[in-house]
Design a protein that fits this description.
about 130 residues; alpha+beta; 8-stranded antiparallel barrel; two-stranded antiparallel ribbon; about 15% helix; about 45% strand
Length: about 130
């Protein structure tokens, strides 16, 4: 029995040590215009979703652990790589008409704002703000 406890505690410690610490917290609700979060998203209980006419007010996405949701697609994170100044995510996304792999790269300005950039398209950037009231 003591060998089993020792093995279990060793595995637990190894798991905790091997788990990467994340410097970037992407979880939450993000909008292209912080003043329009309530028009882009709606909250029902604890669940946040896109408002019916969200596209009229801006764009956004919802991140919950290993999933990303946009208005037209749902994505599951396949891999995540952090560099000193950016977070790079490769996600498997599905929409009503197709499946695809999408690269999602961001630089955080501060805790509540980030810039999505496209490494293959220099100069193309989109800024998003965390909707803190959601």
């Amino acid at each position: 029995m003591s060998k089993l406890c020792y093995l279990a505690s060793t595995l637990l410690v190894a798991t905790v040590i091997a788990a990467p610490a994340s410097a970037y917290d992407l979880n939450g609700v993000w909008a292209s215009d912080a003043d329009r979060c309530d028009k882009i998203f709606k909250k029902s209980g604890k669940r946040v979703s896109f408002a019916q006419m969200a596209d009229l007010y801006g764009s956004g996405f919802i991140v919950d652990s290993s999933s990303l949701r946009g208005k037209a697609a749902r994505c599951i994170v396949k891999s995540r790589r952090e560099t000193q100044d950016a977070l790079h995510i490769l996600a498997s996304c599905s929409s009503d008409i197709m499946l695809s792999n999408v690269q999602f790269s961001v630089r955080f300005k501060d805790d509540n704002s980030l810039t999505r950039f496209f490494p293959d398209i220099p100069g193309m950037e989109l800024t998003y703000y965390r909707c803190t009231a959601m």
